Structure formats: C-alpha cells, structure tokens
C-alpha cells in the first residue's frame, strides 16, 4: 500500500485538517501518517471561534523522524503550517528525503479572510511552494501567494496561477469554487504550458467544512497511485463534488463534507 506523510493541523471538530486527510486516504486506499503542526479548537461559547494552538518545532520534527526514518513514505502533503520555522522544516524535509509534495497553502481557517500569521505567506512563497509538485490554493491563498487581491474572475485566476507557477511549483490548481463570477464552480489548472478549466454546476449548500483539505488529499492519493497531476486533479474534483453533494450539518455552526459519499 502506498504511504503518505501529512504535515498539517488537527481540527478538533473532525471536519478538516488531519482528520479530513485521513478519511480521504482511507476511502481512496492509501495509508496516511501524520505530523501534527497545530491544534485548532472551536469555541462553542464564542460562536465557534477558532482557537489555534501551534506545536513547537522539536515536537513536529520528532513526528517526522518517526515516519521517515522509521517507516518511509511515497509522497508528502502539507496543510496548516503555523510558523515560518515549521514551513522551513517542511521544505528541508522535502530536500533531505527527496520527496514530491502536494502543498495545500493553508493561511486561514474557513470563514476568515485574514491570514492567521501574515509572515507565513512570504515563507510559503520563498521556501515551500517552489518545491511543490502541485499546489492547491483557494482564491484567498492564491491572492496571498501571487500578491494579488480580490480574485473574482477566471482571467484573474489564470494570472494568479501563472505567478504561482513562476515561484517554482511544477503544477498549480487555483480553486475558485462558488466564489468566481458566473454560474459554474470553476478551478483553474496550470502546468506551465496551458491552462485547463475544471467546471461543475454550483452545489447549493453551506456545509463545505474540510473541502480544501479533502480535495488536496484526494489529489495526493491519486498521484501516489500513479496518476499524473492533471489526472489527479480531475479525479479529486469528482471526489470532492460527491463529498459536497452529500455534506451534512454537524451543529448550528458548521457542516463537513462527506468523504464516505464516494463509496460504491
């Protein structure tokens, strides 16, 4: 069985982060191992506000050592990296172990439009995104990486994808979803030669918690099973579409996507 190292944060409510990653790998048939970088706890006494508790570098390093020196993996995926130190650690890990990586450049919790740590965008641009086999930013993250603002059109998504590719990433998928102008959910894929649009009818639901993590993990799992990055994006798009179509309400504040919707 193919194995994945996920360096990312833990979502206490179970819908996103490491929890979404592992559910996705389980469904697609790869084995996930985790190095936790941060713990996110949602506060039920404060409108489900996200309280973030970063984990120190030494503890993250110990987890990585357990996995890579003790077992070994076929690919690496990153999610929330809370400090520039941890971003540097992830980049150094790719170099040391000569791994391909899917970089999900998480810069904010869902529903927030400001980065948790503004300095992390610069570190991602300079240290980690240049090493990515593929990176999977949403519109906000793409704007931060490309140093653009208010990305709302497909042309702007293409411009951002080009700029992110120019940082060094081998492939870029900018996720527009329902936030792009028009009546389709649109993602823009760029491989340095041509752009390709992945489109789907809008799904009318507020329950999309964990969609980004699930999509990036589905891309990772597909790549490690032998598909090209483009094929992996196409497969992941199908996976996340079903997961959103069958998403559900967890409580009055949030509803996760349903990774189990893809079961035959």
The major β-sheet equals:
6 strands, mixed
Uncertain regions spanning at least 5 consecutive residues: none
First-last Cα distance: 20 Å
Helix content estimate: 25-40%
Note the run of SSEs as H and E.
EHEEHEHEHEHHEEEHH
Tell me the number of helical segments per DSSP (H or I, 4 or more residues long): 8
- What does the radius of gyration come to? 17 Å
User: How are the strands of the largest sheet arranged?
Assistant: 3-2-1-4-5-6
Overall mean pLDDT stands at 94
From the spread of the alpha carbons, the general shape counts as: globular
- Which strand-content bin applies to the residues? 15-25%
Number of E-state strands: 9
Alpha-beta content class:
alpha/beta
Task: Give a topology summary.
Blueprint lengths: L2 E9 L5 H12 L2 E13 L5 E6 L2 H14 L4 E4 L5 H14 L3 E3 L15 H10 L5 E2 L3 H8 L7 H14 L4 E6 L6 E7 L4 E7 L9 H14 L4 H17 L19
Parallel strand pairs: 1-2, 1-4, 4-5, 5-6
Antiparallel strand pairs: 2-3, 7-8, 8-9
Helix pairs in contact: 1-7, 2-3, 3-4, 4-5, 5-6, 7-8
Could you give a short description of this structure?
The protein has eight helices and nine strands. By secondary structure, it is α/β, with parallel strands linked by helices.
Provide an overview of this structure.
The protein has 264 residues and is of the alpha/beta class. The chain contains eight helices and nine strands. It has helices at residues 17-28, 57-70, 84-97, 119-128, 139-146, 154-167, 211-224, 229-245, and strands at 3-11, 31-43, 49-54, 75-78, 101-103, 134-135, 172-177, 184-190, 195-201. A six-stranded mixed beta sheet has the order 3-2-1-4-5-6, sandwiched between helices. Strands 7-8-9 form a three-stranded antiparallel beta sheet, sandwiched between helices. β2 and β3 form a beta hairpin. α2 runs parallel beside α3 and α4 packs across α5.
């Amino acid at each position: 069985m193919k194995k994945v190292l996920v360096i990312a944060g833990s979502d206490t409510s179970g819908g996103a982060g490491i929890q979404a990653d592992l559910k996705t790998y389980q469904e697609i048939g790869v084995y996930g191992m985790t190095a936790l970088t941060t713990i996110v706890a949602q506060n039920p006494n404060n409108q489900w506000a996200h309280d973030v508790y970063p984990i120190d570098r030494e503890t993250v390093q110990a987890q990585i050592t357990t996995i890579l020196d003790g077992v070994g993996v076929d690919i690496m995926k990153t999610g929330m990296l809370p400090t520039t130190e941890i971003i540097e650690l992830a980049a150094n890990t790719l170099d040391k172990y000569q791994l391909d990586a899917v970089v999900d450049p998480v810069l904010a919790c869902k529903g927030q439009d400001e980065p948790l740590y503004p300095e992390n965008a610069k570190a991602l641009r300079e240290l980690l995104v240049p090493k990515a086999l593929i990176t999977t930013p949403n519109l906000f993250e793409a704007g931060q990486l490309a140093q653009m603002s208010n990305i709302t059109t497909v042309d702007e998504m293409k411009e951002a994808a080009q700029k992110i590719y120019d940082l060094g990433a081998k492939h870029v998928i900018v996720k527009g979803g329902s936030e792009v102008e028009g009546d389709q959910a649109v993602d823009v894929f760029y491989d340095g030669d041509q752009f390709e649009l992945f489109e789907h009818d809008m799904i009318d639901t507020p329950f999309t918690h964990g969609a980004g993590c699930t999509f990036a993990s589905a891309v990772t799992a597909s790549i490690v099973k032998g598909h090209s990055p483009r094929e992996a994006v196409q497969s992941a798009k199908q996976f996340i579409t079903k997961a959103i179509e069958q998403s559900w309400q967890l409580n009055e504040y949030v509803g996760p996507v349903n990774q189990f919707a893809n079961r035959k």
